[in-house]
Amino acid sequence: MLTETPPQKTILVVDDAVSNIDMLLVILKDYDVIPVTSGEEALSLLDEEIVDMILLDIMMPVMDGFEVCLNLKANDATKEIPVIFITARNDVESIEKAYDVGGVDYVTKPFRPRELLARVKTHLHLREVIHRLDYLATHDSLTGLYNRRKFFELAQQLYNAKRDDVFAVMIDIDHFKRINDRHGHHSGDLVLKAITKSIRDLLPADSIFGRVGGEEFAALINAYNLDEVKQLIEKIRITVSELIISIRGGANLSCTISSGVAQTGEDITSLDDLLKKADDALYEAKGSGRNRSVFRQRD
Asked: What confidence score (pLDDT) does residue 12 get?
């Protein structure tokens, strides 16, 4: 059986001594290594490249390693990248400062290859563990969507940034309890995954989409045009209604959804107000026959 090879980790090496870089390229031959010779070059490169780790020299002209690390930690895009300092310094003050500015480890020159490799592997593994734990803490385990807590956190950020051009959408799977009662919870899980994948594939990439209840979902969309949002929500409704979902025993299911959509306006003073307005619209959609969407335009 063929197994997929994990992607090669990328390590940025920052050292003004070319001889040190050459040595590190040999030691780290199993990694994708990007070498640069100054802190300024490193910070510029990170505007374009994504790396898994940084090996950072302390003693460099113009901008030393401590200053580079402080810049990294002040930037949301780079603050989580583990930094291992590599330096000839071994005094207590330098070691303490390396950790104070955000480094995760400290390796002294001349390099001991096995020690350096062990530290690199350890911190790359820790980063993977942290990413996995963060994912589990912020995503719904069944659908892979944001969980309720993370949805509200990110939705609040989008609402604050784009207050005048935000639409809230509340979505409910029609008669979902019947599916669980008639076909079992395993079939219900298949339905949830199929429907949420279809919705997620159609939503704009910068939307916030989460599972906020058993069969209830919420999305926040940044858009300027109400008609475009209406077309999108109608496309989602039709796409879901046309899904054929295979379940155990060779049977097929089809489902519909109801949606409530609300637009920010003068009567909306918070994210809670906006979501409440969308939820009221969803309640009307369900009460008027389901498999439909109700819109609340700005007052």
From this structure: 98
